[in-house]
Amino acid sequence: MSIRPLDGVRVLELGNYIAAPTAGRILGDFGAEVIKVERPKAGDELRNWRLYGGDTSMLFRTVNRNKKSITLDLRSEQGRDIVLDLVRHCDVLLENFRPGMLEKWGLGPDALNAVNPKLVITRISAYGQTGPLARRPGFAAVAEAVGGLRELVGDPDRPPVRVGVSIGDSIAGIYAAFGTVMALFQRERAAGEPVALAERVMDVALSESILSVMESLVPDYLAYGITRERVGGRMEGIAPSNAYPCADGSSVIIGGNGDAIFQRYMTVIERPDLAADPDLRDNAGRWRHRERLDAAIAEWTKVRTRAEALAVLEDAGIPCGPIYTAADIVADEQYRARDMIQPFSVDVGEPEPKVVGFPGIVPVIGAASLPIRSVGPDLGEHTREVLSELLGMSETAIDAVGTA
């Protein structure tokens, strides 16, 4: 039987897009029952993002796996009352609306606490629930800019660019999941004693989530007056570490920035002169000479295929790896050995369902990923099940709600 540490935890997710649903996905991955509330008819807008066929995108199926979907109109009195009834049976409520929206609907923390004084409330927003910018809207793209990440991504002679995924949403979702489990642990440790509402509200800001992974960006500025700049494929102050072209048109990543590793690295690429150069004995010197080093390394890689270069580097213990495409990931034996690509039959808009691989559950408990129980559900797939089994509503009462 699979280990699921969050078995018995019930989560009500009022989230859309990626941030709160990512938190719900992580909790669901490890056993929590996650009930996702979506708008009638339209549902979560993520259902249509990158939709290449069918009526539900693989992005939605991925982010909302291991969940149940019900449809309710949160703006209606009836929808609000049902949410409050559901909250009585839940341990956690997740949401990522603009601050003040839940309060406007009569579903703010005080109202939720009144029906369930043990509820953990995890809120995700652009700037947090307090402060002068709290009510300002903002997606992950804005948060990545305000948090300092966007300024560092790209080449120095071009405008900043964005990484290829909604990294701000995903990082915030991870923090939200951690905060939720932390609050549940605190509640458990209280052994039945009440935990103040303020201590059960987790306030996650997209902008702050990005800032938190920016390493010493701010301390370096305040301590030394250093303003970090874009350095392309490199990492500021670390060399040699970059992507290098190969003879077959692919590229490899090589990280040879450790002092001892650098010596072996230069021997491998047949440049003993660089290994012996006193200006390159430490990382600071190598960073100053990064252009010269990268040029020498590229001269070596560009006359070898990716496989040839990696074989030599790996044999010498030099940290390196291929730059994978989706096809490479699917074929990779390491991912396969740890069940990190799990197959499900899904509708892709063709006459018959298609078997599609979905990324596995992280972190691994044991030797391989826990099994994904289900991919993201169809819109409202579990409305009748949840409202009848959890709230005891009749078929007639469910029909009267107008959830479809």
From TrEMBL:
The UniProt record lists the keyword Transferase: yes
Recorded GO MF terms: CoA-transferase activity
Coiled-coil ranges from the UniProt annotation: none
Any one Pfam family match given in the protein's UniProt record, by short name: CoA_transf_3
Keyword set includes Transmembrane: no
Top-level taxon of the source organism: Bacteria
Alphabetical list of SUPFAM superfamilies matching this protein: CoA-transferase family III (CaiB/BaiF) (SSF89796)
InterPro entries assigned to the protein according to its UniProt record, in alphabetical order: CoA-transferase_III_domain, CoA-Trfase_fam_III, CoA-Trfase_III_dom3_sf, CoA-Trfase_III_dom_1_sf
Name assigned to this protein: CoA transferase
Keywords: Transferase
Gene3D superfamilies in the cross-refs: Crotonobetainyl-coa:carnitine coa-transferase, domain 1, formyl-coa transferase, domain 3
